[in-house]
């Protein structure tokens, strides 16, 4: 595995610099686009990594996977009364579908759906407790107590998240947000600002590749059925309106974040984290996606 | 395998009669809703089946899988200039997305996309030749020369396909249909009227489970990469705007038809055909889908 | 009046050549863009005109006003069960609204609505009779037996009207077209190809300015209420998704055609026909609209 | 005039009680649905009224007419860079069009457009000053210093206006709102809570019927051109997605409010205010609209 990821890393280093780093908040715009990291955590508990694998980045929308897992643990399939399980066919921050469908987001990985998931996590807790629980969960599955929220990014998001504020208020009008919008957004922006390096991220996602079990502990996080279902959602919805193309080219469940991070699951094999900050037109990591496609191809990882 | 499919068959027989047989053309409405057939073709060339497994039905939209395979063989990835690879987020016969996106259908499994695929097959051939080639292809992969088109159903569709006629003319206006609409529809309605029983259908789809190879011949139909990619499209788009939910619950690439047929692919294991004519609200087989879900669950077939 | 229209004509002649003549059918593309005609028919029966006022052009969508009037005479307010009375907020040939609203077009002046109106006119008659009745009606209100259909344009439209064919088939699927699509389109394209010069067109529309009465006969064509209501529809819907802006700038009920013709109604005063073939981005006569705006402003004709 | 409005009042009193009072905020739900008032202010300065003509109600969306007039006075036609002039074809609080058209509302009478107008009024002023200016303007044109904001209704709206909050944040994301959302909404909800009786409202709107001049003063509020243009906007957009039907049936520029108020303009004749709190399905006064239609018909007021 180590030679393979190093070969892929080497192949794509020359292309670094292409694409465009997200600049809708100043903190993200500061990141050097010439970064590339690849890490693979395998089912036997080993972690392979290369490139800028010790540099932390905020995981942004990848956090939606962990928040969903935690919320399903809290309310079970009742969650699906408030969020759908279908690809939306529209951009990640679109509001159109919400108006057509009475405030029920199509899936938990578009922003609207993630806000409802966060709203569910808030039930019975203060915002500080909620983000604490989520952080604790991520540390637990990653087996790493050093993972933390980047407070500067969290604050920066809070100041610019007009579209998310619109989505939350819109759903509140339909009764599909139950807490004050400021509280929901506060938790949401902090969950997006959870910072990890690629080794940590690969380890954090590994339970989805191992039928819900933790390689480093003798216990399961979720049932095998639930792990598979989360993977199914990642495959059909994890790359927003680029999910079909990603399934076609890469063939793995995955979730992307606007910071250039990618988490992909290879069932029964392991989990992969890739990071490269410059984005393609769809807002996903340009080089990261290409590197992941090559890695999956060379390793023969397609689930199809 | 045989005891398993018989157990599933037995479990769902009591529910036959629920749902509603498609009645938009008289020929489909005549079918007895109390039908249930299950067939599994495994990678080693065996076929297991039970229930009404010798009764032929028209495969309808399942034919889109075979037409796509043939068209990719003909024009390769140039096909994707005229059809997308994303879930549409809208019903199978919706025209809205076409207007927003200049006549380029989102994927080859919604009706608009399938019409473009058929239009591609027509290039350089007469309609009669085109449907002949498609039929020949299906016979070849199924290893069964007796498969034929049901002419009564084909004619009945021709008389009622107003929506498909609208879709084709609409795309013609954007230059994304190249042949006369009557010719395209003629071939399309005949491909939908290809009739098979479940054993034939399972065998016809098997090459998608075996990396593109034919179990009964020493040759490949398509490359492994292409087979995987067709499977990926079936997973994200094969059940129209129910694809996300189907992936969540069943976890297999599949394609449904309005006659109540279902084809599902279990990579490296085999292919499954299920048939039960009464439909759920999404227009897919009600009991067939439930039986397939149970079968996949008991066999542990999820790709996730 | 004569000096006024001549002054406006003179003012805009220097701008002729700007804009773009419709070229979706070859026959329209042949027209010299350096044409400008203005005619005013006043309630007392006089007609004033200037410029290329003796040159006939096909009235295209302006024919929708006469077809609607005739259809209302035939079925009365039952017509509104099949067509709405609201601005669509979308382009003249959009199909999106039809899918959202079950095949009921928003108003009789978008293409879909006009096709339903034509379908109504066909009830009980052959296409040839139907177009004959419409032509007879236009000749009657214009008091001019020489008005005729341009058969070359009619044929040319028939060969290129894919979008209209899509609209008609789409509505047929919803049961809102009752005759064969070919027949409906045949009549529709012939009604669009009715050719008049500006003097004839102004005279033909005059009954809408005179409470439904004919200046040249001692009789009414429609009731005052109906004339007012047709004017209301022209104001809110007559310029498609430019109707609001036209009302804002010109302040008169009007209907435009893709050949560069315009018919405007000044209640209790008279009717105005303007023609200049080169179009603006919305597909309405560029110089014709500007000349009409100036004329209305100088004459103080706004209904507001 | 007095006998006419009394006759219309008498005719519709028996129907009071039908329809449904707005209940999205508690304060509006408290109003007795058995109310009906009609007032007509004529160009000569007289005011006729009947029914509950001395009972004040909050004018809600009718305030958009006065806010637009004031904003046009402030920034002139620059306003149209940020708001369109077309009917939207969608409900008054729809957000879909904003996403399709980059945060530019279709017209100043849907909620999104009105929020931009309010945002314009805020430029250079504090919220308290802004609402003060608007109130002063309404008092000036109505010639009545007693008109005031209903603070209880204003507060109640503030607590429930999630949809408006979503619209404002959404436009802020596109840069089409320049002030803090809380400030814009604060002013907006206060302008909606301006309370008048029908006599006051008819007088306040009269300048739009008199070419922008004030009957009670020797001066103009706006130019004749601007008055006409505001009337044109009221006709095409004043009743949201019921504007076409209202123009068809009543034939007058008008603006409705969710409290059951209606303001209609009869150019060169006068202005009409009607109030009856119970609403039809479109959210406009049920009996008020019918009474206005009858009054316009009997008085022969249609502008068409």
UniProtKB/TrEMBL annotation, chains A, B, C, D:
Belongs to the glutaminase family. It is an enzyme of class 3 (hydrolase). NCBIfam families: Gln_ase, PRK00971.1-1, PRK00971.1-2. This is Glutaminase. Keywords: Acetylation, Hydrolase. One of its GO terms (molecular function) is glutaminase activity. Homotetramer. It catalyses: L-glutamine + H2O = L-glutamate + NH4(+). InterPro entries: Beta-lactam/transpept-like, Glutaminase. Substrate binds at residues 61, 111, 157, 164, 188, 240, 258. The gene is glsA. The keyword Cytoplasm does not apply. Its EC number is 3.5.1.2. It comes from the Bacteria. Pfam families: Glutaminase.
